[in-house]
């Protein structure tokens, strides 16, 4: 299932990863960290990490490199990008850091993401 909210300004269709399979991201830069992938599109992904301890490291526009890990091979891929937005939240007494990562141009999309890309000649 693909989420597309009316009047939303996103350029790419988004897929809720939980509907496909458990999926995580292994970030290699700026530091080795694991995160839960919440959703993903051809333009980037949204992840969440336990604890706000990494908040000082993951700053706006900082470069990020990593890999999407999943039992589903159609989701697996390496990526590079930058932090487009960040949000620190408290949920059930725990600190959570959420990050939006915009993929760099030239990132080779996974099979699942390629299927979300609009066909050439289709509307915007």
Automatic annotation (TrEMBL):
Listed GO MF terms: cyclic-di-GMP binding
Gene3D superfamilies: predicted glycosyltransferase like domains
PilZ domain: residues covered: 8-105
Signal peptide: none
Alphabetical list of Pfam families matching this protein: PilZ
Protein name: Type IV pilus assembly PilZ
């Amino acid at each position: 299932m693909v989420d597309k909210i009316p009047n939303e300004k996103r350029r790419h269709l988004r897929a809720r990863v939980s509907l496909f399979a458990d999926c995580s991201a292994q970030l290699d830069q700026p530091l080795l960290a694991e995160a839960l992938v919440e959703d993903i599109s051809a333009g980037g992904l949204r992840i969440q990490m336990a604890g706000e301890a990494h908040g000082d490291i993951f700053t706006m526009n900082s470069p990020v490199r990593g890999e999407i890990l999943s039992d589903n091979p159609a989701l697996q891929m390496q990526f590079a990008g930058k932090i487009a937005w960040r949000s620190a939240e408290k949920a059930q007494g725990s600190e959570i850091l959420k990050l939006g990562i915009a993929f760099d141009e030239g990132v080779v999309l996974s099979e699942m993401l390629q299927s979300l890309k609009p066909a050439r000649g289709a509307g915007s």
